C-alpha cells in the first residue's frame, strides 16, 4: 500500500516533523525532521504505535485522535506539546490527516508536528531550559554531553568546558546556568583573551574612582554584577598569570578588592570556564597555574568536534537551512545532491560555527529552490589538510588528577588560516583591541569602522564581556 521511496520523497518535502501511520496507527516511516525531534531512527521504530514514539499532551492518549480521524475521515489540528528526544516540551500544532486507499476507505494517517514559536516550552518556567537547536545531535558523544547538563546544573561546583573553536562551549555554559537555581540571576560572560591585563582586571573586579588615569567614577566589576548568578570565563587559557592568582583567591575566599580599593567585596558567584587550549599542557609549561586548573576543573565536559559527531552534520545542515530560509523569507528547500555530498565530505575545521556560516552564505546567494555547488563558499573546494583527530578525554563529571587535556599541538582552526571569514574578522578585532589597549575609539579608527559598527561586531563575536 505504501511505496517507501514515494512516501519518503513526500515526507522530506514537508518542512516539519512528519510521519506516516498505517490503519493500526503503527509507524510506516518518518522524515528526518521527525527523527531529529524524537531522537529515534525511522527503521528502529517502524511498526511501533505512533503515540509511543511521539509523546504528546494533545489529547491523543491511546490514539483517540487517530481513531477519530479514521472514523470520520476528517483531518484534525490541535495545539499542545510534544516531548522531544531531550525530554523537553516543544510547543506544536499537531495535524492528523487521513490517507485514502482509493476505495473510499482510509489506508493510514499523515501526522505533522508543526513547530510553533512560543515563549513557553524550552524556556518556560515549568521545566528546565532546553538545549537550543544548535546543539541538536544524536551522536553518542553529543548525547553524553547533553545528558550531563542536568547533573552540572544541580550543583554549584565550578565547570571547565573544553573543545575546539566553534563547538558550542558558550551555549553549553548558558544552558547550565539557565537550568540551575541561579537562573533568575545574571549570567555574565567575560572573554579573558580579548583584553590586556590592566583592563581585564578592571573588567573582572571593578575599580574605584581615581584608581588610574581615566577612572572618573567607581565601577563595579563583572564579579559584582554576576553576584548570585554565574560568571562565564571564556578563553580562560589566555588569562594572564597575575590575574590567575587573583582569580584563585576569589574562588577560595569569595572575596576580592577592586582595583585601587581598600575594602573587600564579598560575592556569591558560580564560575564556568571554557577554553580550546590544552590547559594541562599549559600547566606543564608553567603558563597556567596548576592550583587554579584543579580549582576550575571540578566538573569537566569536553565538546566533540563536528567531524566526530557522525550523522549530526546532516541534521545541522537541515536546521540552519530552515533557520536562514525563514529569516530571509526565501523558499530554498534543500541542497542538490552534489552540493550535499560536498558538504558531507567537508571536515568543518571551524565546527558548528563554520557550518552555520556556510549555510547562511549559501542561502543568501541562492536564487532557486535548491542550493548547488556553485553557491557554496569557494574555499571549501580547496584541498584540506588531513584532519588530526585529537585524543580528547572522555566526557566526565568528576575531574581526575591525571586527566589528559588536548594534545600539545592543537589544530590551529579559525585562526586566520582562511577557513572562516568570521574567525578572521574576530581575530582582527581582538588584535586591534590589544594594540589600542582596549580603547574602542582608537580600535574603530584603526579598522576603518564607526564606533557603532565596532560595537555590533564585538557583540556578534561575544567580545563585549
TrEMBL record:
CDD domains: AAA. Residues 390-420 are annotated as: Disordered. Keywords: ATP-binding, Nucleotide-binding, Transcription, Transcription regulation. SUPFAM superfamilies: Homeodomain-like (SSF46689), P-loop containing nucleoside triphosphate hydrolases (SSF52540), PYP-like sensor domain (PAS domain) (SSF55785). It holds the Pfam family HTH_8. Residues 135-364 form the Sigma-54 factor interaction domain. This is Sigma-54-dependent Fis family transcriptional regulator. It comes from Desulfofustis limnaeus.
